[in-house]
Amino acid sequence: MTRTFVFVLSLCFAASFPLAAQEKAKLPAATETDTRLHADGKGWRVDMAKVEDKTRPRVLLIGDSILNGYLKQVTKSLEGKAYVDVWVNPYCQSAHTNKVLGEVLKNGPYDVVHFNMGLHGWQEGRIKAGTFEPLTKAYVQVIRDASPKTRIIWASSTPVTVKGKPEELNAEINPVIVEHNRLAAKVVEEMKVPVNDFYSLLADNLPLARGDQFHWKPAAYQLLATEATKSVLRELAERAK
After folding, report:
1. CA-based torsion, 206, 211, 214, 219: positive or negative
2. What pLDDT sits at residue 6?
3. What is the CATH number of the domain that holds 56?
4. Where is the signal peptide (predicted)?
5. Domain contains 168
6. Range of the domain at 132
7. Residue 94 C-beta-side C-alpha neighbours within 13 Å
8. Which pTM value belongs to this model?
9. How many angstroms from the chain centroid is the CA of residue 176?
10. Helices (H) and strands (E) in the chain — how many of each?
């Protein structure tokens, strides 16, 4: 059973609210002003597994609404092997994001953190010029500072298609996604972080796009879930050595 904390509105200048008394963190509120980048009906939130066996590994999945599409499959696949916490959020690279990440990580420590961020940062001005790489590097460093032994996995952002034409890539947005994936891949390679190439996986399966530009059909989310599960199990095995 999980406990859900639903985030209330405000993108960049959000107030804080306390979690339940037994929680360790205070999390700022979150929202998305671009209606195209909604939470897909499930809300921005932190879901925390109920830990009953303290010897069992803990995993944190971080992502946007795409995570909503595959988290249940991953959680089910890891049942009995790891507890899975989930942070579904609308953040892109920023100092604010890195600060919030630090608060979320106080709910750990985690053996594996699998993170994806990118669909909420394509609009001009959201990420200041020249800051993408240092902010991404700082994001990874926040995780390492919180728990040096945590295994980290980065998942590239998924393709953006034309509304109503799911087999066609969006000529305005998708090139930005590709460039941000390139920059992030450069950072994680330098920091020796393994990669889940979600972009290529779905770019080869565009007929599985839902047709609303950003989201996907269940078969696509199953592909992501399979890759995420494999990578988490691999890193848990490495962590246990």
Report:
1. negative
2. 34
3. 3.40.50.1110
4. 1-21
5. yes
6. 33-240
7. 16
8. 0.88
9. 18
10. 6, 11
